Amino acid sequence: MDGAVISTWLAALLTLGIMSFVYKDNLYYKICEAIFIGISAGYWFITYFWDSLYRIAWIGVVHEGRYVLLGGVVLGAMMLMRLFGKIGWIARWPLAFIVGATAGLKMMVYFTTNAMAQIHGTVDDTMVAFGGGDLYDLIGRLVILIGTVTGLIYFYFSKEHKGLFGGVAKVGTWFLMITFGASFGYTVMSRMSLLLGRIEFLLTDWLKLVK
Amino acid sequence: MKREIPLIITFVAGVAFVLQYFIPHYPFNRFENIFSDWFAIVGAFAIWLGALSLMKLCLLNISKKSHDWPISLLIIISFLSIVIAGAIDGFHGLNSVPATSFRDPGTNFDWFYQNVYTPLSSTMFAILAFFVASASYRAFRARNTAATLLLVSAFFVMIGRVPLGDYLSGWLPERMQFSQWANWLMAFPNTAGQRAVMIGIALGTVSTSLRIILGIERSHLEG
User: Fold this and answer.
1) CB contact, 8 Å: B69 with chain A?
2) Which candidate in B41, B56, B161 is best for mutational testing of the A interface (most A CBs within 10 A)?
3) Among A97, B120, B133, B134, which is least packed, fewest CB within 10 Å?
4) How many CB atoms lie within 10 A of CB A60?
5) Local structure of residue A195 (DSSP, 8 states)
């Protein structure tokens, strides 16, 4: 039996093992799940070792003489102290660094790409709508303006959602429900597509029933 | 010391990234480069912490001979097999000319990735199709206006993105066919909702980040 056949059989048996959960939780599924957990942890463990610890830290310090990177290594080593009960509190220092750096980075990134760019896009769409174009486009762009403004009003919780304000907020919820419906529809389709991919693998590569 | 130093570290790291955005010149751009490298290194150690915690838990289960200990043993064997394969392939790649990667096709690590990791991960997500289907049954009930809009929107997106949709609505003018309804829905009402959510998230992120950097929000330092 050549290596490719063994590999295909292994992949097929693992696929069937995970699929067996649809019937009920069973030992076959638990074995495949354990393999998945171990392999996933090992995959990321070794990937980060070569990509970050070796490529950035080791090469940076040993080959390029960038001793400032030792600060990151020390913080990282402190993170591992979490494994030892009594000195586990030391892990707060690297955690504080990660949280602080993420906060500083994301604050600016989100403000520019999410808030400012989206507001700019909405204003731009509105200007284009009144600048000409066909009715289909005009209605669509006005829908974007109304949907964005009413959706934002729904997220404003400092004023009670009553009267005119409540009515506008309700329109906002309708737009949000349309968005959630579309996202849900896409999620259903992507999962179905993955399922079809696995079934195709079983029928084509493993059982060779489909050519 | 257990509280004050982490607060100072949070403040310095946060302010460094904010400053380099407004002043992308020396020395602030240097800070950003150094902190980005530190971020990657500490992130790698965090992944290691997760993996080693898992190993610690599994070893504890085995030593106590607790329920399902063979499963814990299987997790350790799976973990070690791909780690050893990746380590050997990586060291081998460093010594070969030109240097190769542990990820290259044909390596033992790649064999694990192609034949074990990929089938398991894609099937794990694929079986979610069944659970999503049952969730759809509960979610897609037209009980009120909002739920009806959710149902209608999901219906048009799904039917409009498969050939069956246009097959069924092929007799209608082009702009009235299901695929066009789906396109319109995605381009306009969906964009409006997405924008409202994105702007809301951005404002929330800015306020939460400020609270963290200024030390008002300290929940991450507990435990």
Assistant:
1) no
2) B41
3) B134
4) 20
5) H
> Rounded CA gap, B184 and B127, in Å?
31
Closest Cα in chain A, distance from residue B66 (Å) = 16
How far apart (Å, rounded) are the C-alpha atoms in residues B75 and B61? Answer: 11
Residue A194: which of B72, B102, B126 has the nearest Cβ?
B126
Dist CA A110 CA A116 (whole Å): 9
Q: pLDDT digits over B73-89, tens only?
A: 999 999 999 999 999 99
Q: Are the Cβ atoms of B83 and A89 closer than 8 angstroms?
A: no
pLDDT of the residue at B211? 96
- pTM for the model: 0.87
User: CA-CA distances (angstroms) from residue A10 to A50, A202, B124, B169?
Assistant: 27, 11, 16, 44
For CA atoms B41, B42, B45, B46, the dihedral sign is negative
Pick the residue with more confidence: A33 or A190? Answer: A33
Sign of CA dihedral A187, A189, A190, A194: positive
**Residues of the domain holding A193:** 133-211
Total domains in chain A come to 1
> Mean pLDDT for chain B?
91
Query: Is residue A43, in this structure, part of any structural domain at all?
Result: no
Question: Is the confidence at residue B139, as pLDDT, over 80?
Answer: no
Mutation target to probe the B interface, by most B beta carbons within 10 A, among A44, A110, A152 is: A110
Chain B, window 89-128: residues with a beta carbon less than 8 angstroms from a chain A beta carbon: 90, 101-102, 109, 111-128
- Reported residue count of chain A is 211
pLDDT of residue A1: 63
The answer to whether B129 touches A192, Cβ cutoff 8 Å, is yes
